[in-house]
Automatic annotation (TrEMBL):
Record protein name field: Unspecific monooxygenase
EC supergroup of this enzyme: oxidoreductase
A single GO molecular function term of this UniProt record: oxidoreductase activity, acting on paired donors, with incorporation or reduction of molecular oxygen, reduced flavin or flavoprotein as one donor, and incorporation of one atom of oxygen
Keyword terms of this UniProt record: Heme, Iron, Metal-binding, Monooxygenase, Oxidoreductase
């Protein structure tokens, strides 16, 4: 097979930034349609919107393709053989197995109750207002409750929740402008120092819990399974960040879809279809160290790769009429690897996949106990970082 460099879009970095910032997801979709599956948007920045190539890059992450940033957008050692990566992979294996066990069953009963209470509050008011803030609070609290167990007082979770909110607030300008500053300059900015202080406070609070794990929670399970303190704190910080905005955005898109389409079918198909059209993690990042080949493409050394599930999920070969919301397309669906990536893929796929899917399926069941109508003016997809609905408002009533 002959190997070629990516198609060149020939944009200057300034043009790229300007076009991209105007409408990020739209820009990515247009670039994919105009230039094809692999395009070098500006020197060293390559967009991948083909599932097969994306799958290969994700599969070879930690080896040929690197995750050179952590969730706080700091440079990390991400190659096999590096202590930081090896201990991370051990911690994530242990967390994955803990989150597929009995812990989640009790959690879902609690989650159903909390979401029902929220819907009841909205039904009493007759409408939601912006559903994002309460959904963000619930997502954060849900994961923290799993971490510390049901027996830990609510104010402990609220304290942690405030620290997670501070850290994400501080990281937001950094992640939003991730193309602007090279990290070695970013280190010296006031915003980075603010994020460092916020991370330090969350680290310290989680470290205290790791040193004296409360009974019945994920932290105690991971501790008992022998995950050492530092990697445990690191993955807890990452998972608390990951379980705040992203699951809340998925829930908000779900509310929107149920209000607009009132689908009646299998809840898991509804969840799959919502995450296909509105993958909250709509863009993933990888980097090359050396020159690498994937399929017919040769990626330059030192490239920043952008992988877009948002574009990949609109591939007509796998999803005919891709812009249409059709949960029934998932009945008996058999897709090639890489065609559907809401939770990523390869060795760094989402640790919370099982938990998140179970929560979302529970959410469909709760939402269906209410009658909802979309009373938003215009709903747009905010894509500054996580893709979430902006401008969403629903009327809500009890069905009984
Ligand atoms: C609808 C909900 C969720 C979606 C759509 C989602 C999506 C994703 C995606 C796409 C990635 C991979 C990013 C990449 O490869 O660059 C990821 C990573 C991750 N997610 Fe989730 N996630 C969700 C919920 C959660 C929850 C509830 C947790 C809590 C445990 C979680 C923890 C993580 C962690 C720790 C990682 C980093 C894994 C690593 O780097 O090894 N996620 N998530």
């Amino acid at each position: 097979m002959s190997v070629a460099p990516p198609v060149q879009a020939g944009l200057s970095r300034a043009d790229l930034l300007e076009d991209y910032d105007r409408d990020r997801a739209g820009f990515v979709l247009r670039a994919a349609r105009r230039y094809g599956p692999v395009v070098e948007l500006s020197p060293g920045t390559v967009l991948i919107s083909d599932g097969e190539i994306a799958h290969d890059v994700l599969r070879r992450t930690n080896r040929d393709f690197l995750m050179d940033r952590d969730r706080a957008w700091r440079p990390t050692d991400s190659r096999r053989g590096e202590d930081a990566l090896d201990s991370w992979m051990h911690a994530r294996r242990t967390m994955l197995s803990a989150l597929s066990g009995g812990l989640v069953e009790e959690h879902l009963r609690w989650y159903d109750g909390e979401l029902t209470t929220l819907m009841d509050t909205w039904a009493t008011a007759g409408r939601t207002g912006d559903p994002m803030p309460p959904l963000v609070h619930l997502s954060t609290d849900a994961f923290l409750r799993l971490c510390v167990g049901p027996g830990t007082a609510r104010h402990t979770r609220d304290g942690l929740s405030a620290l997670v909110a501070d850290l994400l607030g501080a990281l937001n300008p950094i992640v939003r402008s991730s193309f602007e500053l090279p990290w070695f300059l970013d280190r010296f900015t006031a915003r980075r120092r603010r994020a460092d202080r916020a991370q330090h406070r969350l680290d310290a609070a989680l470290r205290a819990l790791v040193n004296r794990p409360p009974d019945g929670g994920l932290i105690a399970i991971l501790r008992d399974a022998g995950v050492p303190t530092d990697p445990l704190v690191r993955i807890l910080v990452s998972a608390t960040i990951a379980s705040r905005l992203v699951p809340a955005a998925a829930n908000a898109w779900l509310l929107h879809a149920l209000a607009v389409h009132a689908p009646t079918g299998d809840p898991s198909h509804i969840v799959d279809e919502v995450l296909r059209l509105r993958p909250p993690t709509w863009l993933m990042h990888r980097a090359t160290h050396a020159e690498e080949v994937s399929g017919p493409w040769r990626f330059p050394a030192g490239a920043a790769l952008m992988i877009s599930p948002y574009a990949i999920h609109r591939d007509e070969r796998h999803f005919p009429d891709p812009e249409t919301f059709r949960p029934d397309r998932w009945a008996g669906a058999r897709l090639p690897a890489g065609a559907y990536l809401p939770f990523g893929g390869g060795p760094r796929w989402c640790v919370g996949t099982h938990l998140a899917k179970a929560q979302l399926t529970t959410a469909v069941e709760v939402f269906r106990r209410f009658r909802m109508e979309d009373v938003s003016g215009v709903v747009t997809a905010d894509t500054d970082s996580t893709m979430y609905p902006r401008g969403l408002a629903l009327s809500v009533a009890r069905t009984d």
